[in-house]
């Protein structure tokens, strides 16, 4: 019965104290923020920070700072829990900041300590330290082991259950595991410790608060958050491995966040702890940057979990009940430093790392701001812990109970001012966030265990050991009966007359013993009865528990299977999401690089455009002058044309007069015409022919064409590009050679007799080739395509494209053009013919007339020109 009750009491004690209702009523402590200034690197460096009291610093903007340029020249004052000047020793920082957290850890309280600051400001120096000058972390390990050393449980008594809790194993199970480990150890184990680091922590400090009736075990895990992915630095594998698998963060049954599947090593001494720490340290991603020779590229979280459980009534073994366990944790976090890329000049991987570092620090800031708002205004707005892995891990501390401390590391040199200002603002804001004070319950007394059990056991063991010693054999010690039948028997010697008195006494003594025996017998019978019923009760209870246990086991197995399946799915999803995230990042980078390229090209384009505009303006100015000059020339040419047109009209009028005169009765006009002709010819020749030539009358046949084609509106004789002058005569082309021709004439051909057109004998004229037979016909051996059009001067131009018709083997025919004949007609009346032609024509006519003594050629008004182009 007692065990059931105590079990219930234990369960009541273990109810998670992290529910929101509980937190609302619990006391709260603000996050304690400390500031540590690092020494200046160079004597020439200028400081922008000044310590004015043990907890206040002044920050003055140097003239080089961005904010100074933005006219923010104000000196700012920042207050901390304590400010550590550059000369402060590592021990002093540890004592003031970390030692209380270690004390809390031993008492069962959670603690978080993180260093925050700009890159190169001394975060890693403060947290890890250097050989022979170690930092907070090794000192914490040292003090913990110094304190709990005498009260450690045997290894593997406590065993992580992989769900952020612990199982308790009995001594036999634990021993078996130890033996297995010993076997493995013999097979070969590497020593990872850094002797310098281990040696430098020979500190003998112990803290108060250890419970002597408890057994303790220390477990450590070490993870890093790199590019927002969690990696286990203690995972089995090669000591320097950059390809560790990504871990996921989960929430346990008590709403604590933990890294699922993380390696938790049980540590039995500070040296073993240094081994583990040093192994992780070697794997941690560090790199050289412009601002720090060994810069952390990731956030590292070293977690110390202290498991404690009360010993049983005998003060020997741990109570075999999972619910009596008390687990406290101290997380020591070395955050990567914020960095401005224009100062670090990082590129590629370093730039990506810096981006992720700054982003996660930004999320931390956002979370704390949201938390503070909620606490001040009593609101319940969502705090974006999930946006970054580091804040998700920290959720434990801010939403639950514990102590949170932050050391703001600062480099006081002026170059760091802008970043330091941001750090100081963050620190100021973080100091306003409050965390619930941890509530500690003494589980042992809650289940009715008296304190001092272990001490009593120690004394008892010592006494027993003493009794075993040979000199103790002389001692009369009765460690046996607790129950007795009364005092010793009186003396039984009957040596005097008062023997009857003795017998009476003996009888009374015996009666007293008999009655006492009876009493004891009755008491024993009652107790036996009670024990029997208790045993029966227990048996019944045990049966119930067993059946309950069996059904629970079944349920557990089913849920474990389900959990495993879900875990697998979760891991797959996480991995997929991670790879998508990576792809997204790559695409984002690629897009931004393309954007940059586009911008550059646009810039180039607009530059080119501007250049071209300039050139265009220059050319415009240049050509405007030229165009103006051309206009001038065109005007002159037009006026010249006008003059020539007038002259032509004049000439045509005169010729018309002559033609009219010729229509008068020839006999009547014999006397008058020569006179008129003479006058006209004299006028014309004087104007058109060379100055030295004798003016002569034009013969009548020269005038015939003009008289036969009346001057109408449709054929304006003055237009340069008018319809070609009709010629009633035509000249036969040289192409007419008497063979069978096919003439391919255009549809709208100028009527015969008005336009020069070759007449080809034995030819068949078609306007359109409609049938193949037109060509394949055996009589047809030649092909002529005729085209007529006006040339640029308005003269009629006839082109004859001539070719041989060659039969093909498929029964068809092909035409191979091999000659082009061009017939062109020039009118002597047209001044529009090029100057050269008109002059030549006039010159030729005049010379011919001179040579033949006024006997004109057959077609004086027409000049035919043939061009032959022989095809290759
Ligand atoms: N208080 C100090 N006393 C002496 N040296 C210091 C101190 N603080 C920092 N240093 C030195 O400054 C250098 C940079 O320090 P550290 O690596 O700790 O910077 P960090 O803030 O961790 O940088 P990051 O964020 O880039 O990792 C180290 O060489 C360290 O020894």
TrEMBL record:
GO terms for molecular function: ATP binding; ATP hydrolysis activity; microtubule binding; microtubule motor activity. ATP binds at residues 117-124. Residues 1-25, 704-732, 828-872 are annotated as: Disordered. Residues 30-433 form the Kinesin motor domain. Gene3D superfamilies: Kinesin motor domain, Kinesin-like protein Kif23, Arf6-interacting domain. One of its GO terms (biological process) is mitotic spindle midzone assembly. CDD domains: KISc_KIF23_like (cd01368). The keyword Cell cycle does not apply. Residues 705-720, 828-844 have a biased composition (Polar residues). Residues 535-661 form a coiled coil. This is Kinesin-like protein. It comes from Parnassius mnemosyne (clouded apollo).
């Amino acid at each position: 019965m007692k065990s059931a009750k105590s079990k219930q009491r234990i369960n009541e004690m273990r109810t998670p104290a992290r529910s929101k209702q509980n937190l609302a009523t619990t006391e709260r402590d603000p996050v304690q923020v400390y500031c540590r200034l690092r020494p200046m690197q160079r004597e020439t460096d200028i400081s922008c920070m000044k310590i004015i009291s043990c907890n206040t610093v002044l920050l003055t903007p140097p003239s080089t700072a961005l904010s100074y340029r933005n006219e923010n020249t104000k000196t700012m004052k920042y207050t901390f829990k304590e400010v550590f000047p550059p000369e402060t020793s590592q021990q002093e920082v540890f004592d003031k900041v970390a030692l209380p957290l270690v004390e809390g850890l031993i008492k069962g309280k959670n603690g978080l300590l993180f260093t925050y600051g700009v890159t190169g400001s001394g975060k890693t120096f403060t947290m890890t330290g250097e050989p022979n000058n170690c930092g907070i972390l090794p000192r914490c390990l040292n003090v913990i082991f110094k304190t709990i050393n005498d009260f450690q449980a045997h290894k593997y008594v406590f065993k992580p259950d992989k769900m952020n809790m612990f199982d308790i194993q009995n001594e036999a199970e634990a021993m078996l595991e130890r033996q297995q480990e010993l076997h493995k150890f013999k097979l070969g184990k590497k020593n990872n410790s850094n002797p310098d680091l281990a040696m430098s922590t020979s500190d003998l400090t112990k803290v108060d608060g250890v419970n002597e009736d408890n057994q303790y075990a220390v477990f450590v895990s070490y993870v890093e958050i790199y590019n927002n992915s969690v990696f286990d630095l203690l995972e089995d594998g090669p000591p320097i491995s950059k390809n560790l698998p990504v871990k996921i963060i989960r929430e346990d049954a008590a709403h604590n966040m933990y890294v699922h599947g993380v390696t938790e090593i049980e540590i039995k001494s500070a040296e073993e702890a240094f081994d583990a720490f040093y192994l992780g340290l070697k794997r941690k991603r560090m790199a050289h940057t412009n601002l720090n020779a060994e810069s952390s590229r990731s956030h590292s979280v070293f977690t110390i979990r202290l498991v404690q459980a009360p010993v049983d009534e005998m003060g020997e073994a741990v109570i075999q009940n999972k619910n009596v366990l008390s687990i406290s944790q101290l997380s020591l976090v070395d955050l990567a430093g914020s960095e401005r890329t224009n100062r670090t000049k990082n590129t590629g991987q370093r730039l990506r790392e810096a981006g992720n570092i700054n982003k996660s620090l930004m999320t931390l800031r956002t979370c704390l701001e949201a938390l503070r708002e909620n606490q001040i205004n009593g609101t319940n707005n969502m705090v974006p812990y999930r946006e970054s892995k580091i804040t998700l891990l920290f959720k434990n501390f801010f939403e639950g109970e514990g102590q949170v401390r932050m050391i703001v590391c600062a480099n006081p040199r002026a170059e760091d001012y802008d970043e330091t200002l941001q750090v100081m603002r963050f620190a100021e804001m973080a100091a306003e966030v409050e965390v619930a004070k941890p509530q500690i319950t003494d589980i042992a007394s809650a289940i009715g265990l008296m304190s001092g059990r272990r001490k009593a056991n120690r004394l008892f063991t010592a006494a027993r050991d003493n009794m075993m010693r040979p000199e103790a054999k002389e001692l009369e010690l009765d460690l046996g009966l607790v129950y007795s039948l009364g005092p010793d028997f009186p003396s039984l010697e009957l040596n005097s007359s008062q023997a009857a008195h003795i017998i009476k006494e003996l009888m009374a003594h015996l009666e007293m013993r008999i009655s006492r025996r009876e009493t004891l017998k009755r008491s024993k019978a009652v107790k036996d009865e009670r024990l029997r019923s208790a045993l029966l009760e227990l048996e019944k209870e045990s049966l119930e528990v067993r059946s309950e246990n069996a059904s629970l086991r079944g349920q557990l197995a089913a849920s474990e299977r389900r959990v495993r399946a879900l875990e697998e799915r979760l891991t797959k999803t996480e991995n997929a999401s991670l790879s998508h995230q990576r792809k997204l990042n790559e695409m984002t980078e690629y897009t931004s690089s393309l954007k940059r390229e586009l911008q550059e090209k646009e810039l180039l384009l607009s530059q080119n455009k501007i250049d071209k505009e300039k050139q265009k303006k220059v050319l415009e100015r240049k050509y405007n002058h030229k165009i103006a000059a051309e206009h001038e020339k065109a005007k002159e040419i037009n006026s010249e044309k006008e003059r020539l047109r007038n002259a032509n009209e004049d000439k045509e009028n005169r010729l018309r007069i002559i033609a009219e005169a010729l229509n008068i009765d020839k006999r009547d006009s014999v006397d008058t015409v020569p006179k008129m002709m003479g006058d006209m010819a004299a006028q014309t020749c004087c104007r058109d022919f060379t100055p030295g030539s004798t003016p002569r009358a034009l013969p009548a046949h020269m005038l015939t064409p003009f008289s036969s084609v009346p001057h109408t509106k449709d054929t304006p004789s003055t237009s340069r590009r008018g319809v070609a002058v009709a010629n009633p005569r035509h000249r036969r082309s040289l192409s007419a050679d008497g063979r069978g021709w096919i003439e391919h004439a255009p549809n709208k051909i100028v009527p015969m007799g008005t336009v020069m057109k070759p007449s080809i004998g034995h030819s068949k004229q078609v306007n359109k080739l409609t049938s193949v037979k037109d060509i394949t016909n055996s009589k047809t051996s030649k092909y002529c395509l005729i085209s007529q059009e006006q040339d640029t001067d308005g003269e009629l131009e006839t082109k004859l494209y001539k070719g041989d018709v060659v039969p093909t083997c498929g029964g068809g025919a092909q035409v191979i053009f091999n000659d082009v004949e061009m017939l062109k007609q020039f009118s002597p009346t047209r001044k529009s013919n090029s100057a050269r032609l008109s002059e030549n024509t006039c010159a030729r006519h005049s010379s011919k007339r001179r040579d033949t003594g006024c006997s004109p050629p057959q077609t004086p008004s027409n000049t035919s020109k043939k061009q032959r182009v022989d095809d290759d």
